[in-house]
């Protein structure tokens, strides 16, 4: 089932998500729904809070080497209770967008190399070393679980630009 994505400035986007304790059918349905929602909205990641469920669960699917997402979910990562550790201080700039802030894209600095400890949908513990765009996508989604949006990482001038564009867009839609 495709769920509604809550959008900025909804205050629920700024909630800190709670750890997942029950790895049950309800979680599996949520993850399946999140996948359908992410694909329908042409996203590469989605945090549970974006569909108004404040738990520490997220999806990332950056696709294969060509960026193609697989219909059989081969490239999908289901990440529950994530903990990120930077592997070094190297950072990269990546042009980010967000399904909760449609139509706005900006460059953000993120760690290039991370280690991710997490659980899968069944509660099994996993570790993943992620680099480049995959590392960026994971960090972006984990920020959601911590109640943060990528626009908070923008410089003062870029944030002013965003605020101005957002107000203009909001006025047009009224």
UniProtKB/TrEMBL annotation:
Cofactor: binding comment: Binds 1 Fe(2+) ion.
Binding sites annotated in the UniProt record for Fe cation: 98, 140, 144
Active site, UniProt feature: 141
Keywords: Hydrolase, Iron, Metal-binding, Protein biosynthesis
Reactions mediated catalytically: N-terminal N-formyl-L-methionyl-[peptide] + H2O = N-terminal L-methionyl-[peptide] + formate
Listed InterPro entries: Peptide_deformylase, Peptide_deformylase_sf
Name under which the protein is recorded: Peptide deformylase
Organism: Campylobacter peloridis
Gene label: def
């Amino acid at each position: 089932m495709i769920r509604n994505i809550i959008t900025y400035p909804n205050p629920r986007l700024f909630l800190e998500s709670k750890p997942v304790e029950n790895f049950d059918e309800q979680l599996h349905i949520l993850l399946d729904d999140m996948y359908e929602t992410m694909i329908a909205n042409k996203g590469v990641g989605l945090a549970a809070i974006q569909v108004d469920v404040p738990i520490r669960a997220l999806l990332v699917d950056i696709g294969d080497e060509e960026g193609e997402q697989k219909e059989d979910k081969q490239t999908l990562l289901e990440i529950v209770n994530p903990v990120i550790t930077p592997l070094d201080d190297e950072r990269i700039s990546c042009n980010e967008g967000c399904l909760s802030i449609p139509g706005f894209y900006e460059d953000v600095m993120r760690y290039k190399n991370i280690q991710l400890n997490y659980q899968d949908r069944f509660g099994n513990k996993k570790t993943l070393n992620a680099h480049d765009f995959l590392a960026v996508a994971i960090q972006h989604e984990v920020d959601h679980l911590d109640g943060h949006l990528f626009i908070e990482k923008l410089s003062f001038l870029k944030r002013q630009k965003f605020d101005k564009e957002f107000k203009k867009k909001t006025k047009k839609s009224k």
